[in-house]
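Is alpha-D-tagatopyranose placement plausible here? Inputs below.
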Amino acid sequence: MKKMVVALLATLMIALVAVPGFSQAKLRILFMPGVADPFYFTMEKGVKAAADKAGAELVVAEYPKAWGPENQIPILQATYARGKFDLLLIAPTSTDALKAPLKAIYDKGTEIITVDTFIGDGDYSKASDYSFPLSYIGSDNVLGGKQMAEQLAKMVGEKGKVFIEATNPDASSVQGRVKGFTAGVTEFPNMMLAGVEWCQDIQQKAQEQVLTALQINKDIVGIFGLNVFSAQGATQAVINAGLGGAVKMCLWDATLDNIANLKKGNADLVLAQKPGEMGTLGVEWGVKFLKDKKNVKVPKKVIPGFMFFTAQNVNDANMQQYIYQ
Ligand code: T6T
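Reply from A.M.:
I modeled the complex. Tokens:
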């Protein structure tokens, strides 16, 4: 009799495991952010909420104190060594330097979704040495950069010198924004790009670079602050130069600091990405795939879109959800 019960239970377990979506062990997810900043803190909230809802175990890697593969890769590899992960969500800080470390993790059986940034050219649909991630989930940075240029053109009467304060040339998001903004400026024959500076995601450096640019080009009419730290540094430089409100500021990333400057009139436009949604979608698609690999097709690109804050809508109730808290 006892043997019959054991045989029956064993049969039942084998049958259950064959059911798509049924798995006994908790899925283990690793989240590897790009740098310690409000954008990724907000993304982590989305990751955690989705992981909790899915009943998955989430490990959040230590936040790199500074941007760059030299900071991110050692943390990634040390955290990954702490046990088997089914899914890695990562914002690769370099389109090239993260290819090999991520391929090594993939070859160990961990599925990968890149969030916010991508490796290679971000097209994981074609055969290449970087087509192994399941998906890229992040903003359309080229479109956003172009729209920032077009909005800035409207503010300055489609004429004059503008400037980009950027961060790291090997980050896919930065490449896209510079490309898009530059293309946008060329649409206006009476506008010109006075220059691009690269602060390596160090706010103080952005502040110094913009101050220098303003001293060299007294006729700069507008500045694109390309991300959290470059935008905040650029705005502080303009304020310190006594040009707050005079030089038009288009800032990327809806941090409390950038929003406060918009409210004070030191900035004119703030682009809000949707980092929380990027994180949630990354977990949802990863879990969906892991639970039914045979039937689930993960889209190779998922673009959550972005919102624009202006002086007119910055206090609207429906806009508050887009501020990075
Ligand atoms: O702008 C975001 C992110 O989208 C970009 O990839 C890197 O910079 C930020 O994290 C802000 O610091």
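Short version: The CA atoms of residues 30 and 323 lie 25 Å apart.
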